[in-house]
Design goal:
homodimer; globular; TIM Barrel; about 350 residues; two-stranded antiparallel ribbon; 7-stranded parallel beta sheet; alpha/beta
Amino acid sequence: MSHPSGPAGPAFGQTVSQAAPLLRVLSGETREKPPLWMMRQAGRYLPEYRALREKAGSFLDLCYDPEKAAEVTLQPIRRFGFDAAILFSDILVVPDALGQRVRFLEGEGPQLDPLTPETGLAPLAGELDAERLAPVYETVRMVRAALPPQVALIGFAGAPWTVASYMVAGRSTPDQAPARLFAYTHPVLFGALVDRLVDATASHLLRQVEAGAQVLQIFESFAGALPPPLFRRWSLEPVSRIVSRIRARYPAIPVIVFARGAGAGVEELAQSGIADGVGLDWTIDPWRASDAIQVHRPVQGNLDPLALVAGGDVLARAVDDIRAALGGGPHVFNLGHGILPQTPIAHVEQLVARVRG
Amino acid sequence: MSHPSGPAGPAFGQTVSQAAPLLRVLSGETREKPPLWMMRQAGRYLPEYRALREKAGSFLDLCYDPEKAAEVTLQPIRRFGFDAAILFSDILVVPDALGQRVRFLEGEGPQLDPLTPETGLAPLAGELDAERLAPVYETVRMVRAALPPQVALIGFAGAPWTVASYMVAGRSTPDQAPARLFAYTHPVLFGALVDRLVDATASHLLRQVEAGAQVLQIFESFAGALPPPLFRRWSLEPVSRIVSRIRARYPAIPVIVFARGAGAGVEELAQSGIADGVGLDWTIDPWRASDAIQVHRPVQGNLDPLALVAGGDVLARAVDDIRAALGGGPHVFNLGHGILPQTPIAHVEQLVARVRG
């Protein structure tokens, strides 16, 4: 696989041998020290994030403010020298830019005006409001311009099932019961919603690439509650359609798919060839992943975020176990889920030293 | 495996060929029509349950009232003719009988006074308060006396990890983060808590057998958030010790272990030989379970409770798929999680007809 050559940014025209470590691993290279970044690395555990967040209005305001969002994206790179920056944004900018009202209330999860069998897709626009999302792409451009060439920039979006589960329930729900029931009882309408999200998500990701994202990650955060036939129909299949559209336009841009809680479904994902990189949550046995997943695709993961909160020997042992299991093949070191707000900075420093030391 | 011969109840002295269908399947028999029961089958979806519940005081009061608890246990048997009754009780009677304050507030989950690194195990008694639990065993006796011989009576308890996660957090928590962190940072103290629970749980289950329970089910409801090494240490290992104690005393009493969300861990459980029957949650592919689990042990499951809420063609197809995948070996038909309160009675009737028809 040749190096991702996005239409913008300093990576353009590079070959794999010159590329950032993350890109090299996603192209299949095994490295003695794995590239390292952390999901939700721009977040509340950082005092500099909390300081900026206080002055930034609502969470969505921050997502749509290129200066501030770029600054937040860069904070963990400056502090820890991670191998990748991930755009500071949210998976719910897609429903927001489709015209569904999205609010982030302090101390609560996101709230949306739910779609129902009665409303159907009427509250939604046919496609993304490009103007609404322009600041996101501007953020990507600013971050890429500010990053050193060895640090890859990751764009992202939520997978249709995960985003649809918010759009139907209006909030985060245990086991996504409202969306699952909706999909059972109104499969045609739910399919139309997923189709709309496939279009919108592919378009959103393509624009991130055009602005300078060199890697894309698709978050299927709620894969865990889907029975296997529904996982295939509502997760693998639409994600596959999104990736096909990206490959058709930018064949060299690698796509990581992180299907949290999918268990055996992650092995299916790896075998399917849909993803260039396969994210592993913290419940997956890295030894099993080495046999059943990493033989097919480069993997990314999978430290328990609570082992990082614990620190000390617990953290050291957990890091070493993952390295021992996955170090023999292409591996991006990451957490198995987003970093928790209570994580001590010193433990992140310990993680970086352990992975690189 | 010979038939379970409990020390009490009409099953005593029976051979497998005379035994209830559930017992026959758990001893390894493949039946053309699988025995059928539903987790949480005595519950809010039943109008007769709701009527009795209104008059019963607190939820724990109901658990400790043998007349009412026996009545509730029998309600779904009368209405649907299921192949098994499961004692109406709760996994938190164990911490309650160890002296930890447990409350069930209407419309909220259970609340306990959390154990902390500072309190240690000081708030707990060394062993179960037998007097506190006497009504539970009385319920078992009453139910067994009222049941026809072809209907098996299941006793149950929570697995130590699941119960400990409530005892540490004081409530249900996403991904059991407080208990997981406690286990990382205070492994010796957490191990002592698990040891206490192994003793208490084994004792509680043995007393249920002595009162007439013919099958035991251990609920590891929160298996899903444990990384594999912690799953082995805090789930498989203590559950194995509990089962060993039951086998030492009553070798013929089958034990079903239901480790919800354990994914690949369920395959390890099946291979380990710890359980006589392996519960499958609704996210496990029944075809894969046929190859990787049912070859080792009889299986139980695994209809998505929301497919039962949906009813109609969705339900019919889901039932048929599970039967097609698991019908060639020993299989107990069940849901993959507890029945939901909003489930229409007519859909349960449809389920019964479909499984038996």
